[in-house]
Amino acid sequence: MSNLLTTDYQKIFPENLKKYKNLQALSLQFEEVFKEEVVAEIPKLAIFKNLEEQSDEVLSALAWQFVIDNWKEELDREVKIRLIKEAYWAHSKKGTKKIIEENLKKLNYPIQLSEWFEFNGQPFTFKVTTTKINTSVHWVDDLLEIINKYKNCRSILESICLDRERENAEYRVGNFVISEIEKEYFSNLEDRDIKLKSYQGIYKTIEMEVER
């Protein structure tokens, strides 16, 4: 490609036309445009190898081509490129616990998904637990939207729980070290009409360790 950019194309300009100054000026202009608009774009023809060099319009077209469900134009370029690169595998594993967790992690929603048999829930239900609130004020709605796009049809979201904890105090009694930990939880429980009600509260747990 470097040869295409550095070649002097005037060397191949027909000798019998060099006397026409207007044609020679046109050829110089054509050469300049060819190098800037055509040759410079050649590396981008290997689209998937050079996603980082593609324009936002090309990335959006690829998202449409690969039917990327949670695509949004306001996403960071790094996130868009990662979604495109992993689109094939995302579709091949769609509907599984692993793909939901992976896609939420990519979009800054680190969560733990528990299926019904892991927490003694109703059959085909699942719950989501996270220890981090996304910066968006609509993080719950965004979270639900992504989950609904990637979960299988038979599975029903039972709840979304925010679990955060902080250590308040530590006591010593003989050989025992007693830690008082305050946990905050936020839970969205789904009712029969698929509407969410919010519950928020704080509770304390006491953990005791024997010092050795």
Nearest-angstrom radius of gyration?
A: 29 Å
Task: Please report which band the strand proportion falls in: under 5%, 5-15%, 15-25%, 25-35%, 35-45% or over 45%.
Answer: 25-35%
- Helix proportion range: 25-40%
Q: What quaternary form is this?
A: single chain
The general outline is elongated
Mean pLDDT: 75
- In the sheet with the most strands, the strands line up as 1-2-3-4-5
Strand count, sense and barrel status of the largest sheet are:
5 strands, mixed
Overall number of structural domains: 3
Q: Count the E strands.
A: 5
**Separation of the first and last Cα atoms:** 69 Å
What's the helix count? 8
- Report the order of strands and helices: HHHHHHEHEHEEE
The residue ranges in which pLDDT falls below 50 over 5 or more consecutive positions are 191-196
- Secondary-structure-based class equals alpha+beta
Descriptive overview:
There is one protein chain. It contains 8 helices and 5 strands, in the order H-H-H-H-H-H-E-H-E-H-E-E-E. The protein is 35% helix and 27% strand. Helix 3 runs parallel beside helix 4 (77-85) and helix 6 packs antiparallel against helix 8 (139-150). With 212 residues, it is α+β, with helices and mostly antiparallel strands. The chain is elongated. A 5-stranded mixed sheet has the order 1-2-3-4-5. It has 3 domains: 1-45, no CATH class; 49-92; 95-212, no CATH class.
Keyword list:
212 residues; alpha+beta; 5-stranded mixed beta sheet; 5 strands
